[in-house]
Amino acid sequence: MNLFIIKCICVYFSGIGFGLIVNLPHRALNVAGITATLSWLVYYGVMNTWGGLGSANFFGGLTIGLVSVVIAHLKKMPSILFDVPGLVPLVPGGQAYNTIKNFALGDYQVAFNYLSEVVWIAGSIALGFIVAELINKIRIKIKYVSKGWDK
């Protein structure tokens, strides 16, 4: 349990740290850390229940997309400010490093295995963002129609 809390704190600070690197406004830093933590918690939960890299990253990306739109609306800031730091815990940096390392060492079979993981993870995150955007568009359309503005 203590290790899990330490992981959550580290993910939170990774979101804030990346927000500082990309020069986020200071009033967005805390929320960026929270977005990163929420996306990682969803990833961690799905990974430990279903066990799939693709589904865990998909739901993590979906969480980032949905949460960042809501927070951006509340804070009156662009949602991209919360998208990018939220991605930090999901980025397949270790697999990408192992891909390059194994290509350099000439172990092409292992390198292509890692490369397929990188592509699978990146595609899953991107698909999560796409679905979040579709959900947001549908939500806006329903709100638009319910107010009678579609005439």
UniProtKB/TrEMBL annotation:
Pfam families: ThrE_2 (PF12821). It comes from the Bacteria. InterPro entries: ThrE_2 (IPR024528), ThrE_Dicarb/AminoAcid_Exp (IPR050539). It is a multi-pass membrane protein. The chain crosses the membrane at residues 5-22, 28-46, 53-74, 118-135. It is found in: Cell membrane. Residues 8-135 form the Threonine/Serine exporter ThrE domain. Keywords: Cell inner membrane, Cell membrane, Membrane, Transmembrane, Transmembrane helix. This is Threonine/Serine exporter ThrE domain-containing protein. It comes from Lentilactobacillus buchneri subsp. silagei CD034. The lineage of its organism: Bacteria, Bacillati, Bacillota, Bacilli, Lactobacillales.
